[in-house]
Amino acid sequence: MTTLPTRTIGPLTVSAIGLGCMNLSHAYGVPPSEADGIALLQHALDRGISFFDTAAVYGSGDNERLVGRAIMHRRQYFTLASKCVLHAEDGPRGLDGSPAMIARTLDNALGRLGTDHIDLYYLHRLDRDVPIEESVGALVRAKEAGKIGAIGLSEMSAATIRRAQAVHPIAAVQTEYSPMVRNPEIAVLDACRALGIGFVSFSPVARGMLAGAVRDADYAPGDIRAGMPRFTGANLAHNLKTVDAFDALAAEAGITPAQLSIGWVLAQGGDIVPIPGTTSIAHLDEDIAAATIRLAPDLLAAVDALFVPGAIRGPRYNAAMQAWVETETYPDEELAPVAA
């Protein structure tokens, strides 16, 4: 095993880059075979990644099963994170932040993962029908029972983060964050830093758009980007012009676009841990290399100059998906799609 630089989120010390495991089970077209998924997870551990992020809803539990089969026999070498509330326990996915469902989802997750303890357990989304205090209280009881080690929140607003923190210290908040997606900068990052909460950046390469993976809207069946406004139609055509300029910056610096994007996230603060996801071992190695690349201040400034407010058109979620997200939005995210 190799060693990567580490960072601290709450009480946990993890590799500076983690692995988001969702891609191995759903979301971006046909997932890899179980054998290939296991090989990638084991390779990530061998290369020094010590922070693996899954969730009950990924593949309707299949992702937790995959992680369990792939690496749980090497449990001492990594920090395990999973999530509840957004689930598919009874068929179609939905939100249920009730203490009873949280307890049920956690017990099922432990069984699927093949372990008796999850190091970091998130409320995946806010169930607006259940006070956040009740949902956090359920995780406090799970922690007292030894089933989880630390409590996290995902895609929640600064106000909700503060309410949750008043019940029990929150270790980490997870939200999409990349040079292209800056929503945490509205309020969440400031709230986390004021409260001493670590920040986990999912989709640090903007769902592949900042990794050379999106050049048109010809997505495979089952790819969630086909339903995301900024990844389709005239919005996508407009956004790719900025992406081209970003790619040119990476080429001039002698690194890949993915490395520039992940490196930019790492440079935003030592309290931030990006968790890119991939189904490719080659891309995984590319992402891992970003942990030791130092980006010059003028390059970081050039990236910021590209992604000024309004540079990217279209909301990051469609209306149905946005209804389950509480992270603050920019005014331009509410605009109708740009006409063709």
Automatic annotation (TrEMBL):
Q: Which intervals hold domain NADP-dependent oxidoreductase? A: 16-306
> What InterPro entries does its record include?
Aldo-Keto_reductase (IPR050791), NAD(P)_OxRdtase_dom_sf (IPR036812), NADP_OxRdtase_dom (IPR023210)
Example GO molecular function: oxidoreductase activity
Q: Quick check: keyword Membrane in the entry?
A: no
Q: What keywords were assigned to this record?
A: Oxidoreductase
The record's Gene Ontology cellular component field reads: cytoplasm
The record, for SUPFAM superfamilies, names: NAD(P)-linked oxidoreductase
Give the domain of life.
Bacteria
User: What is the name listed in the Swiss-Prot or TrEMBL entry for this protein?
Assistant: NADP-dependent oxidoreductase domain-containing protein
Biological source species: Sphingomonas sanxanigenens DSM 19645 = NX02
